[in-house]
Structures are given as C-alpha cells and as structure tokens.
Design a protein that fits this description.
354 residues, five-stranded mixed sheet, 2 domains, 47% helix, single chain, 8 strands, alpha/beta
Length: 354
C-alpha cells in the first residue's frame, strides 16, 4: 500500500526525507515565534509526493495533511529543488565507462552491438501558458506543450533528459538545441569500439524513429521492408526502440502530474518538476532493478565491445579543428548506411533461423 501511494518503497522515501533534512532547514522540525511546532519533514515531503504522484490540486491536501494551498505549493517547489540539487548529480548524469560497457553488452545480446539506448521526445501540455506565448508553444497537438527529449536504456533508466523546448518544434529542432553530444564534441566522453559483421566501428549509436537524421549515431528502422532480412531487422529495431516509449509510459504512470496539463505559470517551475520526476524515476528504477533475463554471449566474443578513455581531459580547452572532426564523425551519412547494412546482416545471422 505504501508503494502504491508513494510510487516507491518506504526505505527509499525515508532516505529522501533524511537527505532533504540535511540539505535545507526548511525540511526540519522548527517552531515559530510563539513557540508553536511547525510542520514536520514527513508532512512536507508527503504533500509534495502526493501532488507529484496523483497530480492533485494544492488545496486537496488540506483535510488530510493539514496544509494550506500556498504551503503545499511551497513544499512542492522546495522538494523539487532539493531533489535536483541533492540527487541530480548521481541520477541525472551520463553513463560511466562501466555502465557504457554494460549497455553495449546488453545491446549485443539483443542483436545491436554498440547500442547505447533509445531516443525520442514527449510532450507535456501547458494549460496556463501565457497568451502571448501560445503561438510559440502550440504545435500539431493543438494545445501549448513543452517537449522532453530523453535517452532510455533497456531497464527504463533515463540517461539523458532535456526539457523546456516549445511544443511547436519537432524532434530535429530539439536535437539541434539539446546537449546530447556536447561532451562527445569536446572529446570528454568515453570512446567506444565494437565490431558488427566483421567491421569495426568507433561511434556508439541510439535507436531512433524515422524523423531523426541519417547520422552515424542513429539507427532507424526500414520503412516498408520487402525481403525477410529487412523485415526481421525492422521487427527487432522497432521492438528495442520501444524502451524509451516504455520509459515515458512508466514516468507518466508513476507521476500523474506530468500526464495532466501543467497548471503552473512559470516555465522554470515546470522544468524543475519535470527534472525532479525524472530523477525520482531513476531512483525507483535503481532501487527496484531486476537482472536482465537475456543470457549474454560475450564469453564467445570477449573483444566484441570495449570502452576507451576520452581523448581530452574534462575541463581542458577544446581545439576547434578537433571539434569539427568529431562533429563530422557524428553526422557521417556513409557510416550510418554501412552500420545499418551490417546490423541487418548481424541480426539475420543470429536470429534468422528462429
């Protein structure tokens, strides 16, 4: 019952309450000027979690938790800011080299060596969007929305989240503004090497839908496949790409506030809530993670994937020519076509008989 109401186990919730109590005096037991006891940290965190989990209005918590509407909104704002500052560095970061190797091993077991996850975008309706911004934030949905770009892995962990772009943009516009490849362009990201169909590649990739460009870092499905090889590849690619769709569904089911129209006036408040929900989602995923049920066959090919140190130490000044070279590597269309062809052959060789 606790997990159903709070979307997480009791030990994890108490860990969050304890961390926020050490982060700010706002989440501690205090007395006012007339020596009257104030609200406890459990009351404030419970109010914030109920608003996130159920998407309820602030004044609906008055009778249950003895909090007024304005106090509930203050609790939600402070809770979101505390989650971002305390847990954001750990649960909203790029994967480490060890985690990258694990993702590539899982991708190899699923027929996609070198896969780092799936990428897609999600819209969040903004009900109280100011009138002067409605044209900018209204796209094909017909209502003002804000876009979340995310990269998710097989276990629904979100490794990259970029939120706040106006809903009139499409996935390509969001990609051009997001910091997804910033560390790669600087040379600070770990380098990867893997082999597909006997050919070595040095750029990891994400599974994407048809709107994304033909870059070396994206692998898309084959529209209207004609032969058995292409049909099998399209089936596996579209099945694996659903990881990010499942992550969006889990995020919206856990936190109904992002599944309902946002009623806040300020963009910063909406961004903080979305970021806090993503961090809490990752914390729950890590707390309830189950082992991957597909047997890995890396022992037969121990050198199929490897992770190398970054070219540039973090904080060093990047050389502009190197940035241009890395950008050309990311956007290389020939590598995209060759990689896609090799993946088609790889999947057919491994799963064609099935």
């Amino acid at each position: 019952m606790f997990r159903r109401r709070f979307r997480m186990g009791k030990p994890l919730f108490l860990r969050i309450v304890d961390a926020l109590s050490n982060w700010s005096p706002y989440f501690t037991d205090r007395v006012d000027a007339i020596n009257r006891e104030g609200l406890s940290p459990l009351q404030k965190c419970t109010a914030a979690m109920r608003m996130l989990a159920y998407g309820t209005a602030a004044d609906q918590l008055d009778e249950v938790l003895m909090l007024g509407a304005s106090t509930s909104l203050d609790c939600l704002s402070a809770f979101a800011q505390g989650i971002i500052e305390v847990f954001g560095g750990e649960y909203l970061r790029p994967p480490t080299p060890q985690e990258i190797l694990r993702l590539m091993e899982i991708g190899h077991a699923r027929g996609f060596p070198g896969m780092l996850g799936s990428i897609d975008c999600m819209h969040w309706q903004w009900k109280n969007c100011p009138m002067e911004w409605r044209g900018q934030f209204t796209g094909h949905h017909g209502v003002p929305t804000m876009i979340l770009e995310a990269v998710a892995s097989y276990d629904l962990r979100i490794w990259h989240a970029y939120f706040g772009v106006a809903g009139s943009n499409n996935d390509i516009n969001v990609l051009n503004r997001s910091p997804l490849f910033i560390s790669t362009l600087k040379g600070e990201a770990p380098r990867v090497q893997y082999t597909v169909n006997g050919r070595q590649y040095d750029t990891g990739y994400y599974l994407a839908d048809g709107i994304y460009p033909e870059w070396a870092t994206f692998v898309k499905s084959i529209p209207l496949p004609q032969n058995d090889k292409n049909k099998l590849f399209a089936k596996f690619q579209e099945g694996a790409r659903k990881d990010v769709e499942r992550a969006f569904a889990a995020l919206q089911s856990r936190f109904s506030i992002v599944n309902r129209p946002a009623k806040f006036w300020k963009r910063a408040a909406i961004g903080s809530i979305m970021q806090a929900c993503v961090i809490l989602h990752n914390m729950i995923v890590e707390d309830e993670r189950k082992p991957f049920n597909i047997p890995l066959d890396l022992n037969r090919n121990p050198h199929i994937s490897s992770v190398l140190p970054p070219e540039v130490m973090q904080g060093a000044h990047p050389v502009f020519q190197d940035v241009l070279r890395r950008s050309a590597t990311i956007r290389d269309r020939e590598t995209h076509i060759q990689l896609k062809s090799d993946l088609v052959e790889n999947i057919w060789d491994r799963f064609g008989e099935q």
